[in-house]
Design goal:
The chain has eleven helices and two strands, in the order H-H-H-H-E-E-H-H-H-H-H-H-H. Helix 1 packs parallel to helix 5, helix 2 packs across helix 8 and helix 5 runs antiparallel to helix 8. A two-stranded antiparallel ribbon has the order 1-2. The two termini are 36 Å apart. It has a single domain, classed as ABC transporter involved in vitamin B12 uptake, BtuC (Orthogonal Bundle), CATH 1.10.3470. Helices cover 72% and strands 3% of the residues. It is mainly α.
């Protein structure tokens, strides 16, 4: 029964990893950009939720109503300006630009808010849980985050497969030159994809703030876990991201159950094993988005 609880906790934390990673997967699947500022953007979303929504008279638990639209617009603007210019040069420039953006964000947050930890206040909900068995604990917050992750991935998949804009995104991801010849404005499509990715980053940042404390330096670790989830599941596969996040979460929880110091190590071992046995990931395909 103890191991069953470990499995349940791994699935729950894996849902958060999947929510955190889906924007990273979308950015790479469409733009071929590894956004090294991805984790820092989520931290910014947490700070916006904590410090902006109270001034608007909105409870922090509903902060996504404000933060997600802001990040959706910011993603489009940032893509059409800074990121697009780096894409037009070469992939190495994009890595440098996003790394520089990460450094700037982290240091700005340290200057403005200091290194003190913050949380998204959701009242006594944080302490509530469901007990399906005597030794199994299911946090309502973690369960909600898992549900949001599944819903977001489902809606993204539906958007990409059933809408005209979504099909254009897939077409540009598969062959940018052919899409251009067909009249598609790939820069605009890139902007739409980035706006969707930033919207998911905002949700991940708020979820992180609900589950635990965040600080200006929290982005790096979460970026690592998100990257591992994407690679394990298969780069460009949205549902693979969910599976990869859950697999990573389960590995970490089983490692922590053996020895708390093995938590991160167990996830890294799984990551390396997948790279060695199946480099394209569990659900990796030749097409950019599946």
């Amino acid at each position: 029964m103890v191991w069953l609880n470990v499995l349940v906790q791994g699935i729950l934390i894996g849902g958060f990893y999947a929510l955190f990673a889906c924007g990273l997967s979308l950015m790479f699947g469409v733009l071929k950009v590894i956004n090294l500022a991805h984790g820092d953007m989520a931290v910014v979303a947490g700070y916006v939720a904590v410090f902006l929504t109270p001034h608007l008279g909105l409870p922090e638990v509903w902060s996504f109503l404000i933060v997600v639209p802001i990040f959706t617009l910011a993603g489009y603007v940032l893509q059409r300006t800074l990121i697009q210019k780096s894409i037009d040069r070469d992939p190495f420039t994009t890595l440098l630009v996003t790394f520089g953006l990460s450094v700037v964000i982290e240091n700005l947050l340290l200057e403005i808010y200091s290194a003190n930890g913050q949380t998204v206040n959701i009242g006594d909900l944080i302490a509530k849980s469901w007990h399906p068995a005597s030794i199994i604990y299911v946090s309502y917050v973690s369960l909600g985050v898992l549900g949001v992750a599944v819903l977001v991935l489902f809606l993204l998949q539906l958007f990409l497969s059933k809408t005209g804009t979504g099909r254009l995104i897939r077409a540009v991801a598969d062959d940018r030159e052919a899409a251009q010849l067909s009249g598609a404005n790939y820069r605009h499509i890139f902007g739409v994809a980035a706006s969707l990715a930033f919207a998911t980053v905002a949700l991940a940042g708020i979820a992180y703030g609900m589950m635990t404390q965040f600080a200006p330096t929290s982005g790096g670790v979460n970026l690592l876990f998100a990257f591992e989830a994407v690679v394990i599941g298969g780069i460009g596969s949205l549902w693979g991201t969910l599976v990869g996040g859950i697999a990573l979460g389960i590995a970490q929880q089983f490692g922590a159950h053996i020895n708390v110091q093995y938590q991160v190590l167990a996830g890294n071992i799984l990551f390396l094993a997948v790279l060695a046995i199946r480099p394209q990931g569990l659900f990796g395909r030749k097409t950019a988005l599946a």
